[in-house]
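Ticket #4471: structure export looks truncated?
Reporter: QA, pipeline team
Priority: medium

Steps to reproduce: submit the single chain below to the structure queue and open the exported record.
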Amino acid sequence: MSIPEPDQMIETDRLILRKWKKADLAPFASLNSCKHVSEFLPKTLNKEESDALAEEIMARFEKQGFGLFAVERKDSKEFIGFTGLNIPGFSAPFMPAIEIGWRLSYENWRKGLATEAARAIRNYAFTQLNLAEIVSFTVPANKRSRSVMEKIGMTHHTQDDFDHPNQEKGDPLRKHVLYRIHGHL
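Actual output as written to the record:
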C-alpha cells in the first residue's frame, strides 16, 4: 500500500478534501455540538472534546498513512466537516477493516455533498491505496448515512450486523448495520 502525503488534496466538482487547518477547529466544534449531527452518535461534544477529536484525526494520518480529510466547499471556502478512512478502534467480527466515514454540518445536508465526498474517498481507497475492501457502519435508524453507503455502491448483508462493543446493552445505539464494498469499481 502506498502511503499518501498527509497534505494531499482530493478535489470533486464542489469540494476540496484537504489537510486540517487551525481555522477548522471552531466550525468543527459547532458541528459536533449540533443535536442533528449527533443524533446517532453517543453525545454532542463540547469545544475541548471536539478539539481533542480533531487532534486525534490529524494524528491518524501519520499513524495510519490515511485518515479523515477536512471537507471544504469550493464556492464559499467554508469548512463543512470531514470524510475519509479510518481503522476502527474496537474488536468486532468484521475486523480488521478500514472504514469510510463522514460527518458534515447540518446546513450542508440534503445537497449530495456527503455522497460526493464519499465517492471521492471510495475511489481514492481503491485506486491510490489499493485497498481490497472498505466498510461502513451505523445504527439501523440512520437512513441518511445508509443512503450514502448505498449510493457509493456499498451493500448490506444482515449476517454482518453487530452490537457495537463501546455501547452498553440496552443502549439504542448498540445495534449496528455493516456495509461493504470491494475494490472492483
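Status: closed, not a bug. The export was complete when the record was re-opened. Leaving a note from the reviewer for reference: The CA atoms of residues 73 and 108 lie 10 Å apart.
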